[in-house]
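Margin note from the TA: students keep mixing up input and output lines. Inputs are the sequences; the output is the structure of the whole complex. Example:
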Amino acid sequence: MNDSTQSTPKGTVAQERIAVLRKNKAFVVGSSILIFWIICAIFGKLIARYEIDQMDFEATYAAPSGKYWFGTDGLGQDIYSRVIIGSRLIILIAFSATALGTAVGASIGLIAGYLKGTFDMILMRILEAISAIPVIIVALLAIAAVGGSSTIITILIIGFIFAPNVARTIRAAVLAEAEYEYVAAAKLRSEKTSHILFKEILPNVMPTLIVEFTVRLGYAIFAVATLSFLGAGVEAGSPDWGTQVADTWSLIFSNTYWPTLFPAIAIASLAVSINLISDGLLEVFEL
Amino acid sequence: MLRFLVKRTGLAVVTLFIVSGIVFFMTSILPGDQARQLLGREASAESVKLWRIENGFNRPLVVQYFSWISKVLRGDLGMSLQYDLPVSEILAPAASKSAQLAIVALIIIVPVSILGGVVAAMNRDKLADRLITVGGLSATVIPEFVWSVILILIFGVAFRIFPISAFPSEEDADLLIRVYHLILPSIALLLVLFGYISRITRAGVIEALDSDYMRTAVLKGHTKRAAVFRHVLRNALLPTIAVIATQVPYLVGGLIAIERVFNYPGFGSVLLAAVTAKDFSLLQTAVLLTGVVIVCFQLLSDVLFALLNPRIRQRVAE
């Protein structure tokens, strides 16, 4: 796209979209919750009331009170502080994995959609095969094969599992874009394929890519939380919502609900916030 | 239609072969030594080597793969390293338990989701519609284990309406009691799947409501509600069923966490135990089986779509 003629209307389109987003209640609520958790992830130490590993053996399994807002767990650790700090790992893993998956997937999708032919056909078969196994199961298989779980491994695994889905979405968008004259024009100017892909087509499939990113981010939160609940997402003992639920949920039968309920609500609020954001974006981009 | 069926089935078989390759090479190439896992850290290098030769792990990977896949195709699924039992003897009862849970879940999920979609469509853009669509989709993104824990807390502990375990403690509990134990885990699955299915139904019903035959039905003197149930639902139902078939991977993936919380000895529990014990022969087969089930349902949904829409049939057959 030629910038001098397109920049003015492009600017107004962006402004218009932001104005629409601001009026979208779901988007505003969703991004407020997400911003809250991101602030907790970065400045958690300032918001937490105790050190996360500070134990109070006088008050194990203490019910929520003025001293311990969300109560304490079996080691007398403050659950409020652990929930605030616990946002860090899940947000870090989910964002990194989604960024990785989107970058890899978008590149594959761009190339497959543009080149078509045999390359595209083989690629699509492989992508179809990968998506024939649920994300959680592939991740568990990979974690068992690698022989242990860590933050980096979880990021890599979820990133690579998401790449095919992103690739498929972007490929479909590229197939539609490739029909337009601006692509033919670029070909006539004998631009390099990489220029056509990343400078011409990519900016035009950007709305699709942004929405796909937020949708995948929601799935990443879902997957990371589930994996760490199953004991396979992060190192044992890390302050992490899924791990907290895994460690304490059997206590709910004896009505000691607070060690489980608060991290569970935290997971739900983060997941829903991202869903509200992607819903708002979908409406604005009119996809 | 026959051309379409043959071609689509062929593609499914190709996909399954790729799935088997991915599953096999993922467990073989990635670091992590099965022999060490099994024989323990103290095992001598000599005994590890011997074990690898005895179990054929010293052969080239491609040879190992073809020996594995040809055995699987002949129905020989191998031995579980962890239980020292044939894999099929472990997987069959577990898979049947999970299937029971899935059937009870679908019996609840399908009518409730369709009803939700119809109600949303008939109150388009009103409060009920917003509640069902936004609420349904928000529920969808919350992990099954979070729902399970919350459901147990509300209905199992606070109000004691449903049992907290998915499996009756008596050995020979009758059907009704077994189903009763499966209701709470099914509701957890419902909450995760409701959003997608009701959205598809809603779209189908809205399209049908705007159609000419709907206007004719109303002109003929039917009330709107009667017309929806007599004419619209019939048209909106098949795409809904086809979409439900595409949701099966989510259902299968969700079973692992749900079976863990509800202490249910199904397929997901076996899979998770195999991961923990690094029982790769069991794990490979279990994951491959998951792939088979899911590819079959995808095939089913594509065939349903093709039955509904001749244009799709044409495109694939060409």
